[in-house]
Design goal:
Layout: H1 2-25, H2 31-44, E1 46-52, E2 67-68, E3 71-79, H3 82-93, E4 113-118, E5 122-128, E6 133-138, E7 141-147, H4 150-160
Helix pairs in contact: 3-4
């Protein structure tokens, strides 16, 4: 039982440290230019919403084999109204959206919603509400994965995509 507690402590520390590193990512030399591109694309780009699902050979709702980062598109694109886009941008750019020192739940990432912002760059954000986790992709490259506080984002998404 003592070894199990030590292992549990070490694993908990690794998870806490990884979430802390996510917060520090945006301030690092690698993260600053990426955050700048993310902020610019969020602020100036057009925005579309998609409903996505986990890959499955039996999912009949999948739209003509199209997917975002391996997750089949169920519906979309739906153009986002500028007011809703500004609200989304505000939520995604606030530091308090991303809790520090949070242990991610032991859950498989199963996004249900994705947003695509297009300006000079293409920014995709996939959202899993079961895990309360976001994944950011810039020009097709995974650049960040983090926990988030879901309440405010859930309310906005229900307004944008009432069927989800």
């Amino acid at each position: 039982m003592g070894h199990f507690r030590i292992l549990l402590f070490v694993l908990s520390f690794v998870f806490l440290a990884s979430c802390k590193e996510d917060q520090e990512f945006w301030d690092s030399e690698i993260g600053k230019p990426r955050f700048s591109a993310v902020a610019s694309t969020l602020a100036n780009g057009s925005c579309e919403a998609y409903e996505v699902t986990i890959p499955s050979s039996t999912d009949q709702k999948e739209v003509q084999g199209k997917s975002l980062h391996g997750y089949p598109i169920v519906s979309g694109p739906l153009r986002i109204h500028s007011t809703d886009q500004k609200d989304l941008q505000s939520i995604l750019l606030r530091r308090d959206t991303y809790p520090e020192n949070t242990v991610p739940p032991d859950c498989a990432f199963r996004p249900g919603v994705a947003f695509r912002f297009t300006e000079k760059s293409v920014l995709d954000i996939l959202i899993c509400f079961k895990c309360a986790e976001l994944r950011y992709y810039l020009n097709g490259e995974s650049i960040w994965q983090t926990c988030f506080k879901p309440k405010e984002l859930e309310v906005l998404i229900k307004k944008i995509l009432p069927k989800t």
